[in-house]
């Protein structure tokens, strides 16, 4: 009941309309959603130079790093995409998770990335979660859980990776090395969880990334805890592309 009253008040104060064409009642209408162009060229997530199928990590980078591949669904330069992400992240528009989930799902379907055993959203620190009220990556992961293989939901694990250190938002830090330093040792995978990750193929989910430091750090933790393969999917990556 309270939720419904809350929704009513919010809808009255901030009427919902498509951020692109202005059509009422939806943040992103079906027509505009279909106009988003998916990235058809993917690159290695680490060097961002070598073009690889499905955004797999290139041979050279694979020697040094943990993440096996990163699929970037759409371009951040697509104004519609960046607007939607911004709205999602900072205006607390929880309902936008569905159209954004569709973008991620469609990109996954168009790719040949192998199906995961488990989906893990990038966790927020409890303090930031309280402030924002929802974890935007978690909502995307839950959308995928239901839709990747309808009828056979793939497990979403929300508490396997824990955020144990409160960090500055990566968005506020410009320098790549500083971002790496900021996120280092920010996560923990309890030892008792390692039988859940052992030899598993894991898909990490996040909304938008820049240097990738957070996802790379999580991939490193997962491999340390015995994961077989770790892939990731994001709506967009800020920066060069
Ligand atoms: Zn529209
Ligand atoms: Zn590379």
Structural Rg: 18 Å
Q: Please give the alpha-carbon distance between the first and last residues.
A: 44 Å
Q: How do the SSEs run, as a string of H and E?
A: HHHEHHEHHEEHEHEHE
Unreliable stretches covering 5 or more consecutive residues: none
CATH architecture of the largest domain: 3-Layer(aba) Sandwich
* Estimated helix fraction: 25-40%
In total, the number of strands is 7
Structure ligands: zinc ion
**Helical run tally:** 10
How would you describe the overall organization of this protein?
With 241 residues, this protein is α/β, with parallel strands linked by helices. The chain is built from ten helices and seven strands. The protein has helices at 2-13, 30-33, 59-62, 79-90, 97-110, 126-132, 136-147, 176-183, 194-197, 213-224; strands spanning 69-72, 118-121, 155-156, 162-163, 187-188, 201-209, 229-237. The strands form two sheets. It has a five-stranded parallel beta sheet, with helices on both faces. The protein has a two-stranded antiparallel sheet with strand order 4-5. β6, α10 (213-224) and β7 form a beta-alpha-beta unit. The chain is globular, with a radius of gyration of 18 Å. It starts with a helix and ends with a strand. Residues 18, 20-21, 23, 29, 31-32 line the site of one zinc ion. Residues 44, 46-47, 50, 58, 60-61 line the site of one zinc ion.
């Amino acid at each position: 009941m309270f939720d419904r009253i809350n929704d009513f008040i919010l809808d009255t104060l901030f009427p919902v309309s498509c951020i692109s064409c202005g059509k009422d009642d939806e943040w992103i209408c079906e027509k505009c959603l279909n106009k988003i162009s998916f990235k058809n060229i993917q690159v290695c997530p680490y060097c961002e130079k070598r073009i690889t199928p499905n955004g797999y990590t290139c041979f050279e980078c694979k020697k040094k790093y943990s993440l096996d591949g990163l699929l970037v669904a759409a371009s951040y330069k697509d104004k519609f995409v960046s607007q939607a992400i911004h709205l999602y992240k900072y205006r607390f528009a929880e309902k936008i998770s569905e159209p954004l989930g569709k973008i991620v799902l469609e990109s996954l379907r168009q790719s040949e990335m192998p199906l995961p055993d488990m989906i893990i959203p990038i966790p927020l620190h409890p303090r930031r979660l309280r402030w924002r009220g929802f974890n935007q990556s978690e909502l995307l992961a839950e959308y995928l859980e239901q839709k990747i293989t309808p009828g056979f939901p793939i497990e979403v694990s929300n508490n396997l990776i824990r955020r144990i250190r409160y960090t500055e938002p990566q968005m506020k830090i410009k320098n790549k090395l500083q971002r790496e330093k900021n996120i280092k040792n920010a996560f923990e995978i309890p030892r008792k969880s390692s039988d859940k990750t052992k030899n598993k193929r894991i898909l990490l989910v996040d909304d938008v990334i820049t240097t990738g430091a957070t996802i790379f750090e999580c991939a490193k933790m997962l491999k340390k805890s015995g994961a077989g393969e770790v892939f990731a999917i994001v709506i967009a990556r800020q920066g060069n592309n």
